[in-house]
Structures are given as C-alpha cells and as structure tokens.
C-alpha cells in the first residue's frame, strides 16, 4: 500500500492532512492484517475437533477418554460434508441417489504378489460396495490369470486391463497416477460417471453405499484425523512439487481410497502424474510417495466430500476409534504391527 505524498515544502495545513492520511493508512493496514490473519486461522481450523477437551487442541492427553458418541466432525470449514455412514445426513444422501441411474467404476492395481489380495477384495466388494448399483471393476494387472472366476450380477462386471509394468513397489508408486490418467482417458471416461481408486490390499467389512458419492472425494487418514496440522507427514522438501508450506493444509488424506466424478479424478491423476514426473526428472520422489502428491493436490483443490476413517481403517495405537469399520487396510495393518505379532496375524 502506498501512502506517501510528494509535495516539496508542506504548509501547516498540508502537514495536518498528511498526518491524518498517514494515521488512516496505518489503521487500514491494521484492519487488513487482522482480517488476513483471521482468514488463515479459519481456513486451518477444523469446524469441530474430536479432541477439543484436551490440553492442546487436537492432541489427546494421556488417559483422555474420547467420547465415541459425540466427537464426530460433520462438516469442514469450507462446508464439505464429512461422511459417517450411519448418520442421518448419510441416510439422506442415500435417499437422494435412490432415484438416479448411474454407473460407478472401481480401479485397483494388481501387480506381482498383490494378486493374493484380489479375490478377497472383490468378494467383499460384491457384498458391501454400492450394493444394487451398476459397477465396473477395472483390474489393472500384469497377470490376466489372476482375475477370479466369479459370477457377478448382470450390471456388475470385472474388467481386466493389462499393464506392462514391473511389479516393484517403488516403481509402481511413480507410475500408478499416469497409468490411471491414461486408462480414464482411453476407456473409463466413456463408461462410468463416478470413479473410485483403491489399494487392493483392503477388505470391505461393512456397507459402503451411495453416501460416498460426490464430485471430488477424499478419505481422512485414520492415524492423523483429529491431530494438529504440524503432525501431518506432508512433504517437507522445498524443491519437491509435493511441498507443503508450514501452516498450509487442512487434513491429511490417505491414498488408499479417493474418487469422485470421472472428470475430477482424471484432473487429479493427470496433475499428480505431472508432479511425480517433474520430481523424477530431478531424481526425487516425495517422502510419502504417491500420497504426498495426492495431499498437495487436495490442498489446492479441496475435496467436496470427505470420507471419515470408517472408510479407511486399521488397528494401530494411533488410529482413532470409529463407530463402524467399513473398509480395512490389511497391508497397513501389517505394517503397524510389532515384528513378533506379524506371524500370528498372517502378515
Ligand atoms: C503406492 C503408494 O505410493 N502407496 C502409499 C502407501 O503405501 P501402502 O503401504 O498402502 O502401499 P501398498 O503396498 O498397498 O501399494 C499400493 C497399491 O499398489 C498396488 N501394488 C503395489 C505394489 C505391487 O507390487 N503391486 C501392486 O499391485 C496394490 O494395489 C497396492 O494396494 O502408504 C505409504 C505410507 O504408509 C505411502 O504413503 C505410499 O504413498
Ligand atoms: Mn495399501
């Protein structure tokens, strides 16, 4: 803001006017500064913190009992609903979709040894994922023989899509987004209205209905939900395209489940694959791999619907209890176990 006058030799009157102008500028700057600070504060503030009774906001104190019945965030500060499957709002959303005809795609990557998870994934999805709706499972695989021979209802279909990639974890975390964008551009966009992408090392254990449908849908990471911003594992390396500035961000989202309208998922996958490629050209890959780029994208393009940790849960000392576990991650569950417990849990 420029508040300077150029007059050469000010008269007494001019001096008073100048002084008033200066004071007015000062007051205006103060108001702007206050409003900007308030806006930043509001943006970073969850509408309701599950642990707001604890000493420091967001961090449960040792021995704190979290009240299971009341502590759920239902809407974000930018008015995006947070989905808890048994809420009346979810019931209302399911009612809204009951009269609509639409098709939903579900993409999973199944390469190398991850084929061991596919049967359990599909069988559980058939039981619980959008029951009664029209579904195409896009199975991105290097082994067409891994596709289970299952008889599905008429409007639900398993669609193998061949990918010629090395089944190496680090490699896949760099190419999944571009393979996804390519598949949407090539086939998927013509076939379905909504699209979800999931890790295959998961299992549906309770109903996941049309309450999850939205334009851009992201899932709250169960280990960070309710914790303050500074604890989130956002990318810290400044040169990375996934970099998140201190104080930036709203929530930490998991890469195990995201989706929305096909066009939105395409935009997300295309942008993330571009970020990953740019980082790769410098020989860098973000700290949390794909998840870091996803989180960067979702800060710039806030999701219109957030799924609560009911939709991505695993048992670890850090996860928040949820009323109903709907989707559990078998892989991340194993990763969170102590070595001595891995065998008993068949990891
Ligand atoms: C791919 C990826 O970046 N995953 C994220 C996730 O890892 P996760 O431990 O959840 O990754 P993961 O091992 O489940 O791999 C992700 C998915 O890729 C597919 N897959 C992977 C490897 C393979 O050999 N074959 C195959 O098909 C499969 O669908 C699998 O579910 O969590 C990490 C932190 O805990 C990181 O934040 C990662 O960003
Ligand atoms: Mn996983």
Automatic annotation (TrEMBL):
Active-site residue list: 291
GO MF annotation: an example: metal ion binding
Residues binding an alpha-L-fucosyl-(1->2)-beta-D-galactosyl derivative, per UniProt: 221, 291
InterPro entries, per database record: Glyco_trans_6 (IPR005076), Nucleotide-diphossugar_trans (IPR029044)
Source organism phylogeny: Eukaryota, Metazoa, Chordata, Craniata, Vertebrata
GO cellular component: Golgi apparatus; membrane; vesicle
Species of provenance: Albula goreensis
SUPFAM superfamilies: Nucleotide-diphospho-sugar transferases
Residues binding Mn(2+): 199, 201
Cofactors, names only: Mn(2+)
Location in the cell: Membrane
Protein topology in the membrane: Single-pass type II membrane protein
Co-factor note (free text): Binds 1 Mn(2+) ion per subunit.
Gene Ontology BP, a term: carbohydrate metabolic process
Pfam families: Glyco_transf_6
Name of the protein this chain belongs to: Globoside alpha-1,3-N-acetylgalactosaminyltransferase 1-like
Keywords: Glycosyltransferase, Manganese, Metal-binding, Transferase
Binding positions for UDP-N-acetyl-alpha-D-galactosamine per the UniProt entry: 114, 199-201
Family affiliation: Belongs to the glycosyltransferase 6 family.
């Amino acid at each position: 803001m420029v508040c300077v006058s150029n007059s050469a030799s000010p008269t007494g009157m001019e001096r008073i006017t100048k002084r008033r102008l200066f004071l007015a500028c000062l007051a205006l700057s103060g108001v702007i500064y206050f409003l900007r600070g308030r806006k930043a504060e509001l943006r970073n503030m969850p509408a309701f913190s599950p642990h707001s009774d604890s000493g420091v906001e967001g961090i449960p104190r040792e021995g704190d009992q979290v009240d299971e019945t009341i502590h759920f965030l239902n809407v974000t500060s930018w008015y995006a609903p947070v989905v808890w499957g048994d809420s009346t709002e979810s019931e209302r959303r399911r009612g809204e979709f009951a009269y609509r005809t639409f098709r939903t795609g579900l993409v999973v990557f199944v390469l190398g040894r991850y084929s061991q998870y596919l049967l359990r994934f599909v069988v559980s999805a058939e039981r619980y994922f959008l029951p009664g709706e029209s579904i195409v499972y896009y199975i991105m695989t290097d082994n067409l023989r891994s596709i289970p021979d299952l008889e599905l209802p008429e409007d639900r279909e398993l669609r193998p899509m061949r990918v010629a990639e090395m089944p190496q974890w680090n490699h896949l975390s760099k190419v999944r987004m571009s393979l996804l964008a390519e598949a949407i551009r090539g086939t998927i966009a013509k076939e379905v209205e909504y699209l979800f992408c999931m890790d295959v090392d998961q299992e549906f254990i309770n109903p996941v209905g049309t309450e999850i449908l939205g334009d851009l849908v992201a899932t709250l990471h169960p280990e960070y939900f309710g914790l303050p911003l500074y604890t989130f594992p956002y990318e810290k390396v400044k040169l990375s395209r996934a970099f998140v500035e201190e104080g930036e961000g709203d929530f930490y989202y998991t890469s195990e489940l995201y989706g929305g309208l096909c066009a939105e998922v395409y935009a997300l996958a295309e942008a993330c694959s571009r970020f990953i490629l740019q980082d790769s050209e410098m020989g860098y890959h973000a700290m949390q791999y794909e998840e870091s780029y996803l989180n960067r994208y979702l800060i710039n393009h806030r999701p219109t619907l957030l799924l609560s940790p009911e939709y991505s849960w695993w048992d670890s000392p850090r996860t928040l209890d949820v009323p109903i576990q709907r989707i559990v991650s078998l892989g991340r569950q194993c990763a969170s176990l102590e070595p001595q417990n891995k065998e008993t849990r068949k990891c």
